[in-house]
Amino acid sequence: MDEQTGYSVVIDDDGEKAYAYLLDAAEVIVGDVWLYNCGQAPKENDWSDPAKLPFSNPAEFVSDVNFDPIANASEVSIQWKQHPDRPFEVLLSLRGELFAILQHGVKPGWSRLAIKDGPLAKVLNSGDQV
Which sign, positive or negative, has the C-alpha torsion 94, 100, 103, 104? Predict the structure, then answer.
């Protein structure tokens, strides 16, 4: 939690996929991003079935890099950013590498494993960090 703003980040890995959620001081989700799938990405999703939320990211949007899921909190670091010209932002690093960016009011955010902008994540380019 960022003590100055009250923002926090929650990472949810259900064994099939992982997401990061940006919560404001009232614990309302104000930003989100898909981080990774566990196992093979589905060819497509039935977006109309809310029982399947949150969705795994389909193969057309996902890097084929073999990624090991987060094993413990020590692998995650968060950098809080407040800018005068854009929304509150969080840089999420996994194992020392910038992995995702979340911004207040932006859904979805940016993920290192996204290869094409889609409904669950945007492509995180190396120049995207502040």
Answer: negative
Neighbours of 18 (CB within 10 A): 23
The per-residue pLDDT for range 105-125, each reduced to its tens digit, is 999 999 999 999 999 999 998
Q: Is 15 left (phi over 0), alpha (psi -120 to 50) or beta?
A: left
Total count of residues recorded for the chain: 130
Task: Return the H-helix or E-strand segment holding 92.
Answer: strand 89-94
pLDDT for 130 equals 44
Distance CA 112, CA 65 (A): 10
What are the tokens at 97? Answer: 């590498």
The residues near 1 (Cβ < 8 Å, ≥ 6 apart) are 7, 8
User: What mean pLDDT is predicted for residues 34-47?
Assistant: 90
How far is it, in rounded angstroms, from Cα 95 to Cα 71? 10
